[in-house]
Design a protein that fits this description.
Elements (H helix, E strand, L loop, with lengths): L1 E5 L3 H13 L6 E5 L2 H10 L4 E4 L8 H10 L6 E5 L4 H10 L3 E4 L4 H10 L4
Parallel strand pairs: 1-2, 1-3, 3-4, 4-5
Helix pairs in contact: 2-3
Pfam families: Response_reg
Organism: Ferrimicrobium acidiphilum DSM 19497
GO biological process, one term: phosphorelay signal transduction system
Length: about 120
């Protein structure tokens, strides 16, 4: 499984990858990007099975990135991992094509539950 992790914080990308390994995705190959612009570039270079993205990033935020992906017809499972998880954000994420939103702080169980719910393994 190939997972694209998008966050402007390198430390947060490492935390997300560690949590995913602890959630049972220890054989996953991780691809990293620091914002939506770089993530689109990474996706043009390789196929992934899952995208996990922060919401707030410079250049192109997570919502703009998701909307661009969907406008291109890309239907890869997409989840937000963000410090904000208001009901309005959850609604907006789902309306834009996200499969789930995980709020920080999170645990391996949060990832396992969210990914199991959307059939990603």
């Amino acid at each position: 499984m190939r997972i694209l992790v998008v966050d402007d914080s390198r430390a947060m990308r490492l935390i997300v990858m560690r949590q995913l390994r602890q959630a049972g995705f220890d054989d996953a190959e991780f691809i990293e990007a620091q914002d939506g612009v770089e993530a689109l570039q990474r996706l043009s270079e390789s196929v992934v099975d899952l995208v996990l993205s922060d919401w707030n990033m410079p250049e192109m935020n997570g919502l703009e990135f998701l909307r661009e992906l969907r406008s291109q017809g890309e239907q890869v499972p997409f989840g937000f991992v963000t410090s904000e998880g208001t009901p309005d954000m959850v609604r907006l994420a789902r309306e834009s094509g996200a499969s789930f939103l995980i709020s920080k702080p999170f645990t391996p169980d949060n990832f396992r539950d969210a990914l199991d719910a959307v059939g990603v393994r």
